Structures are given as C-alpha cells and as structure tokens.
Amino acid sequence: DTLEWMVANLSVTYYNDGTAIGASDVFVYDSDASNIPAYGRLYSWNAVASGRLCPMGWRVPSKEEWMNLLEGNETSALRVPEPAWVGHANNQSGLSIKAGGLTDGVGNFSGKGALGYYWTGTASGGNNASSIGFTPGTGNPLIEENYDQTYGMSVRCVR
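Below the sequence we write its predicted structure tokens.
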C-alpha cells in the first residue's frame, strides 16, 4: 500500500470531532501567529494520541511508516530549503518538510528554521514518544525516542 502524505504541517485548533484542542496541547512557535503559514502549529503527544488530531480519514504516521518513507527518498528530496538547509535540500518529492522547531511545552522554543521535529504515532514507553528530527547536512534523519510527551512538535498526517 502506498500512503498519501499531507504536504503541509498540520495547523488545526479543533479535533476532528469539533472539540477544541486544549492550550497545553497546541502551540504556535514563539506565540507568534506569523509563524503559522510557513510552519503550522506544534502539538503535544496527548493531542497526537487522541486519535482525533488529523482530519477524518487521516492519521498520524507510525515510526515504521516514517522509516519506510525515508528508505525510498533522499532526505534532501523531502525538505524545503530553509536558511540552514541551503545546499542540503531540494524538495523534489514535494513533501515540503519544514524546520518548525519544537517547544518543551512550558514556553521555551528552539530550532525554527534549522531543525524539523515531527511526532510519529508510536509511543516509546513511560512518558515518551517517538519523533523524527530533520537536521541540515545529515544523510539520515534521527529517530529520537526519548522526547517527553508534553513537548510540542510538528505533525503530518497520512491516509
């Protein structure tokens, strides 16, 4: 089966059942709305694990699905050139991975324009969940399994 991937970071403030996403589960980088068009919003694992974050018919891809996508693509073909990614990104895939950074969930933000962190739909034990991190100049993105579930990261959906 071939998955259809969203080509933009998720930016919803309501779950697919119409319930508002709580303030501790959705973030805007630096609380600056001008970041939303380019980077979308950041979400906690709680929002991801709800199963209601993506539009109806869509879902957050598992760690395995991210790995399968990466096996078939050069990471440069997945990323949009950001200032830190110039010379390392061409976006030939059209997936448009963005460097939306992350938040620790308590008001500290880092990495916008340089690092792209995406939740997978896979928990990794305790209060942690799996994410994928895109960094400039690296051949393979890092699958990081020890991010606290309160952190806010970008989300892509598949169907």
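Strands lie at 26-27, 42-43, 100-103, 109-112, 116-125, 128-134, 142-148.
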